[in-house]
TrEMBL record, chain B:
<keyword id="KW-0479">Metal-binding</keyword>
<dbReference type="InterPro" id="IPR006963">
    <property type="entry name" value="Mopterin_OxRdtase_4Fe-4S_dom"/>
</dbReference>
<protein>
    <submittedName>
        <fullName>Molybdopterin-dependent oxidoreductase</fullName>
    </submittedName>
</protein>
<dbReference type="InterPro" id="IPR006656">
    <property type="entry name" value="Mopterin_OxRdtase"/>
</dbReference>
<keyword id="KW-0411">Iron-sulfur</keyword>
<dbReference type="GO" id="GO:0043546">
    <property type="term" value="F:molybdopterin cofactor binding"/>
</dbReference>
<keyword id="KW-0732">Signal</keyword>
<dbReference type="InterPro" id="IPR006657">
    <property type="entry name" value="MoPterin_dinucl-bd_dom"/>
</dbReference>
<dbReference type="GO" id="GO:0046872">
    <property type="term" value="F:metal ion binding"/>
</dbReference>
<dbReference type="Pfam" id="PF01568">
    <property type="entry name" value="Molydop_binding"/>
</dbReference>
<keyword id="KW-0408">Iron</keyword>
<dbReference type="InterPro" id="IPR006311">
    <property type="entry name" value="TAT_signal"/>
</dbReference>
<comment type="similarity">
    <text>Belongs to the prokaryotic molybdopterin-containing oxidoreductase family.</text>
</comment>
<dbReference type="InterPro" id="IPR037946">
    <property type="entry name" value="MopB_CT_Tetrathionate"/>
</dbReference>
<dbReference type="InterPro" id="IPR050612">
    <property type="entry name" value="Prok_Mopterin_Oxidored"/>
</dbReference>
<keyword id="KW-0004">4Fe-4S</keyword>
<dbReference type="InterPro" id="IPR009010">
    <property type="entry name" value="Asp_de-COase-like_dom_sf"/>
</dbReference>
Amino acid sequence: MGKKRGDGVSESTMNRRNLIKLGTAVGVALLTSAKTAGYRAAGASTVPPAPLPAMDGTADSLLRMQAEIRRALQKPVEQRGWIMVVDGRRCVGCRACVVACVAENVLPPGVTYRSVPEIEFGSYPEVKKYPMPTQCMQCDKPPCLPAANAIAPGSIIKRPDGIVAINYAKFRGRAAFRAAAKACPYKALYYDDGSFYTQSTPALQAYERTVGHDYGHHWVREPKKASGPPAGGGRKCHFCLHRLNAGLLPVCVSTCIGRALYFGDKNDAQSLVNELKEKNKNKILRVRENRGTEPRVYYVTDDPQFIAGFHS
Amino acid sequence: MGKKLPEHDGDGLTRRSILTGGALLGGAALLASHAKLGELAGLVRAAEARELPTGEYDRATPENILYSVCQQCNTQCGIKAKIRGGVLVKVDGNPFSPWNLDPHVPYRTSPFETAAVDARLCPKGQAGIQAAYDPYRIVKVLKRAGKRGENKWMTIPFQQAIAEIVEGGTLFRHVPGEENRKVGGLKEIWALRDPKLANALTGEVKAIMAKKTPAEKRQAVEEFKAKHREQLHLLIDPNHPDLGPKNNQFAFVWGRLKGGRGDLIRRFAVDAFGSRNAHGHTTVCQGSLYFTGKAMSEQYLDGKWTGGKKFFWQADQQSAEFIIFVGVNPFEASQGPTLRAQRITEGVSSGRLKYVVIDPVLNRTSGTMAWKWLPNQPGTDAAAALALIRWIIDNRRYDERYLRNANKAAAAADKEPTSCNAAWLVKMEKDGTPGKFLRASEAGIAPKERRPTSDGKGTYEFDPFVISLGGRLVPFDPNDAKNPVEGDLQVSAEVAGIRVKSAFQLLYEQAAARTVEEWAELAGLKASDLEEIAREFTSHGKKAAVDIHRGVSQHTNGLYNCTAWFALPLLIGSFDWKGGMVGGAAYDAGGGKAGQPFPLGKLHPGKTTAFGVSIIRDGDKYEDTTLFSGYPAKRQWYPLASDIYQEIVPSAGDAYPYPIKALLLYMGTPVYSLPAGHTNIEVLADPAKVPLVVANDIIIGETSMYADYIFPDCTYLERWEFAGTHPSIPWKVQPIRQPVIAPLTETVRVFGQEMPCTLEALLLGIAEKLGLPGFGKDGFGPGQDFLRPEDFYLRMVANVAAGEKADGSDAVPDADDREVELFLKSRRHLPKTVFDADRWAWVVGDKWWRRVITVLSRGGRFEDFARAYDGEQLRNKYGALINLYQEKTATTKSAMTGKPYLGIANYTPGPRDFLDRPVEDIGYDLHLLTKRVVFHTKSRTISNYWLLNFLPGGEFLINTQDAKRLGFKDGDRVKVVSATNPEGIWDLKHGRKKPMVGILKVIEGIRPGVVSFSLGHGHWAYGSQDVVINRRTIKGDQRRSKGLHANAAMRTDPVLPNTCLSDPVGASAVFYDTRVRLVRV
């Protein structure tokens, strides 16, 4: 504790053993407060976003999009309009986005928030194989919402910034989940059954019990409290709301190795997502638009097969 | 058993009982015990907890972030490790690194400003958390308690293990059958200890090998024996002094290895221990590609071909307009995914880039974005290349101006960074094969002359090379930078009674041996496709490239496949040009450059010289040795290659050229990784063949399970390494791996220092016990101790920080106070065993400490984005001669057939055995290939459960047409059998057999006649099976054993049945020349 280093900087804190468990302990404490507080619309982060490096016109588009998020955060939440654009031509099918999501959100087996099915078209040797990244489309008319709320009132809400949010305290049990999952045309909901990847191995590992940040709260999944939220209820993508509020991009976007995923504010005329929509306006589609769901995820593609595959 | 093992019931078991989780149990025991402490910590820290606002996001906070380098595959991407409560909770890409962001942020950017910038990273990289926190990791030294491979173990104290392997003795008297087996320790093998004597003997052995005839050699050996009567006991065989000292009977073998650890291993095994046998795994990856690069980069210096670099070129994907990818899959493998995918997808979607993929199996690179996917017949890669070469030459679409340049001056006059030997004249042998280059004295146009050598210490005989210009012969010096010499390209003539042809002509004749249509038919492709590619390739000036990898090189004709494909960028002269071929450049970490503070190679008192032929017979010619007794030799020799992985264990098994007494295996698993790797089990499981086998591994793996001892290592997230670069990167870089989490292995004491059990602790421990020079007190010289890993690695960091200019102008800036504070704070979770700021500062000294901090705070050193190019050329150039014709290759013979190799690109149908006979497995109707999917690295990602969400058992692919023909359907379970594994099994010994059974997936995207399994599955160790430690059974995890691993079906050589097929020239282990049959189970 407080050992002075050679150069006069104090080494803060404790030995390593204490540190390893600290995260979990904090999480447990906060879980309780989240429970009692119930759902509240997470607004701006309590801490200002960390600064970004200066950039010029050549900067990676990640930095541009991140700057746009910060611009949007300056506005009241109801003026932000989060949307995603998926450039289907650039997806390489690697699932970096899926693993990023699982790690970021501390998801258990069977829950991934997103998936990337791949479909083979054509016959040898004229063959294409398309990956199709998919997730919760944050519909403006989300069919899951009435379905879930009919069973568990207030369990799914539509936020003013466009995100379809789950209230973990209310969205409990299989029945509400089944109703919502059945209503969703995108297979975007997953049930958290309380399991862990390493539970049947010699030891459950600490990384599975670290805090998740869904909807701006701290959540810790504990093996002995398998019935506590978020375990024991439905879960889905929330556009990494907690990261947006910290001035970061959704983790699937920042980690995409083909740069197929784009994110931003549709109410910002200068945003990259609007630029992409405009530039590719004849190649834009939304999946199963005919269902009237008005999804907030837009796909860019120029291959009719890709479109057909998506609608099948 | 307890009674038999009094010496093992001490410290190790006592400690185990404290760690209640059990023996193995690495992560398990450690974290389990911490969990209990953690509950207390929770109460203690309640106050601190309340300080955190509800839901605060702490993963973009600078002090919770460390930058390092991934090692989930060999792409070695930058990583941004996010730590919470000492636990690594998220891994993202490092924005300072060109691997992860495009453009990467300027190097001077503050780490406070990158905390919120997450850059891209592939799925494996992000799952690295699960490689570190693998519940099956080992944390204490394991010693075999049963027979080799029985998987019965006991834990023993680190120092006891070190003492046993150094001292030797009846170490396994507790194992039935080994009661009296005496193991010779390293002490005994380290026979020749006098560096002066080693140096003298090296020279004398060289002289023996230089004698022309066997009789002269015999005479020289007799003289040697008489002269060194007193020292003969130090040699393996006094009658064959060229086998070297007994020291060579210690073999150090590694799998994945980068700088830092590589430098340390060399220091230990070669420079201190004096063994010739320190060998890597290159040939199991893409050996013949590397050794094509070496052959093509040999320079003519001081009268001989020398300095060939073991490397290869890749495409500059960020500026190329056209790329031909052959047998390479950059979206999934091939040093590609995170580094290359975004630049390629950007290129295609912006219209800048068009690319084609030649590969029998559709993959993610060819699946969506490729202009063309051309599924060729496996092993015909050179045929496709020769079709293109023929078309380009016939249509005169090559860069004649570039190719005519015969020396440096001519290239410089054209502002070409490289030259090539296309115009040089080659003498034809009587049988019509090309031999050596024509020399001026032979042509009678200029005399030989004596010239001073480049080091100024001696002289050599220079006989100029010759070109033909308008029918006139012109002598020239390839290194002449003043007088430009250009030559005609198509020359076939007779000079002074000697038939000569230009190198270009030789290439053309190989290409013209068949029509484009005939080549296309051989390759199983359409001539029109090949012509279109050839036209496109020659329509973009210098902005076109060829990018090849294992699919091209891992054949018996691998080197010539690679040579043929690399002839194409030579035809357009796109080497070192923006959008063309890149060679890569890394900051020197070893201290070899002027202005670098710690030249580690020189800071080695008592450094010795290793000599003699190696166990894998690399670098030496059979004919030069005293072992020469006509053809065939007992096993193949490889004068043009090194790191021949498939030769190590089988050669030890055959005791050729001599027996190996102790083998130390680091981060390698030849049994799992090699084609026909099961043949290695036969040797390793038999203590009579290799008396002592020590493994350094993070887990009990498919090969380390056959070891006598396993020393636990730390994962890449807990340790150091210097990752270097890749050929597709135009910037000068040096990514640095450093500990980002506390080590999970036990703490050990070496040289009076506490450190985690790692490779370094093992080597330092042995060095301490043996008294090896260059380690311990004053290990680097007076006042410079080498007691801990950081003593070595921090000096290397300082070298990187210093840059490469003598005046210091290339050094990085000092870290400011804020950055220094962040540096310390962000390491607050690291114990003193891996982070001790006071010692660190002392090791590098005041002058370098803040610069070291600058480098480590950014995960290495990376040139700024704008420095990639100088106009239309690369700034970091290869900048030398490139050999279209390989004279050194042409003057090397196969030790099995006695025939010389061809020095020019050609198509030799494969597969062929060591006696150059075709291998035809009649009745085996399918061609077996492997496939790398982006979710897995060969042997070590099965522990990453997140990745098992995708293809949990891998995939085993077959074309619809074959499935129909054979009556198979999707989901059928089939066994893979081959001519050399008709049973279709892995024989693991002790009655355990694992059948090679896979579940078929029937698809369109694979060439009919081909089946392909994805690598990484079908484990029988690595936590997948039960093991016994300290008499307790640790249950295996069935998720890890799923799927098919069919390497054991791969063809062994008919001449050497304990070895897979190999490329005799480029030394690749052959993965892709086996025919199999599928049997329904």
